[in-house]
Amino acid sequence: MDDEEARTRLLDAAEELFYCHGIQAVGMDRIRTASGVPLKRLYRLYPAKDALVTAYLERRDRRWTASLREAVAASAQPPVLAVFDWLARWFSEPDFRGCAFLNAYGELGSAAPEVVRVHKAELHALLAGLVPDAAPPALADQLLILVEGATTVAALSPGPEPALRAREVAEVLLRQ
What we know:
Residues 4-64 form the HTH tetR-type domain. InterPro entries: Homeodomain-like_sf, HTH-type_TetR-like_transc_reg, HTH_TetR, Tet_transcr_reg_TetR-rel_C_sf. Keywords: DNA-binding. It comes from Streptomyces yangpuensis. By secondary structure, this protein is mainly α. 74% of the residues lie in helices and 0% in strands. The chain has helices spanning 3-21, 28-35, 39-45, 49-74, 79-91, 100-108, 115-130, 139-156, 161-175. The model has no long low-confidence stretch (mean pLDDT 96).
């Protein structure tokens, strides 16, 4: 196994375990066992758990954001509404456990990696880029609150309903 394969296996294991059980509840030995990567190589690639957490969140950010962008681009719906349609599908996935970035911040507080804040800033920028030109400047802020609120509610009660209710509110905001 080369370093690239080891990195992939480690990140796959970290993503599954951290997202399902929480960052603080999962130790490096558990990730080593789940990945099949020897402990010495794990620590050579990620010298500390913080480095692995950051790499996991950075990879998740790239995947999550790309998936959202692709869904919006492929949708026949207005772009802002396509966001909520995508959220409804995400919230319905069997392993949905809320926002990995908010979960990380909830566990780690101010010690959470900077990628948490970067992810939220990127999401805000993405939403701002989807609003109509004539929309009030606060609309992107309001949409971000809708997305985050729906995600939090769905974490407690998985399924499409929180996204569908948030979509209804987004439609009202777009009409104003």
